[in-house]
Amino acid sequence: MWVRQAVAGNPSTPPEILARLAKDPSESVRREVAENPSSPPEALVRLAEDSDFWVYQAAARNRPSLPEALARLAGDSDQRVRQAVAGNPSLPPEILARLAEDSDTGVRKAVAGNPSIPAGTSGPAREGA
Q1: Is the pTM of this model over 0.90?
Q2: At what angle do helices 105-112 and 79-86 cross, to 10 degrees?
Q3: Cys bridge to 58: 6, 9, 10, 34, which one at CB 3.0-4.6 A?
Q4: Cα–Cα distance, 92 to 65 (Å, whole number)
Q5: Is 78 left (phi over 0), alpha (psi -120 to 50) or beta?
């Protein structure tokens, strides 16, 4: 497992290997794939639906995640997952706007810290509360 985990976390690992490791039985290997910036989008979509919280939370943070995966994760019942999504710089504007109105202060603060937030945005997200 340690070797697979190291390969899964290596940004130089070819995308086809990362896609295969995204199906690994070990949660720690899948989490490494979910955190890897070189992971192919289709692997991240799969990992965004993983049964392990830490795996799909890592997929939410990964910059190249596909909008459909981010949209699903933005509606997660766990605020920690929504916070991870809200901080993703690749987040589409419509999801960013929805999370700016989230009931959780931490999610709104993550939106406020997102480098992709439009300059003219005001309200709770811009204020960080």
Answers
A1: no
A2: 10
A3: 34
A4: 11
A5: beta
